[in-house]
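[stage:ingest] chain + small molecule (zinc ion)
[stage:ingest] validated
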Amino acid sequence: MRNGRRKRYSRDFLDFLNSSVDMAHLVKSCIKDRPWFHTSECRHWKCRCPFHHESTPSFTVYRDTEQYHCYGCGAHGDVITFVMEYKRMDFVSAVEFLIKEYTLWMKWAKHRRKIRKVVEKK
Ligand SMILES: [Zn+2]
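[stage:predict] done
[stage:export] C-alpha cells:
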C-alpha cells in the first residue's frame, strides 16, 4: 500500500506541528493516572510506561528533542507517533487530533504570515 494519505500535509507543516506541540504537555494530558518524575538534570520527565506493564518508570520524555523513549519496551517517537500509538489512531487522525487540540491552523496561519514578512524584507 502506498502512503498516499500522508501527502495531505506538507513537510513544512509537519515540522511546524512537531515544534509547536509540547511533548511533555501532550503526554501528561494523556497519562493522568500515574505520577511523573523529573530526572536529575530536570530536563526530562519520567513515568511508568503506557505501552507495557512495569513497576518502575522507564518511559522518558525528552524536552530538548521533543521525543519519548521507553527503556523497557523500546517505544520511541515524536508527538504524532505518540498519539498514533496511545490513542490507536492512523497518521491522519493523529495529525487532525493534534491540530484541534493545539489550535494549530490558527498558529500555522500566523507562522506563515511571519515567514512571508521575513521574505519580503530581504
Ligand atoms: Zn515501555
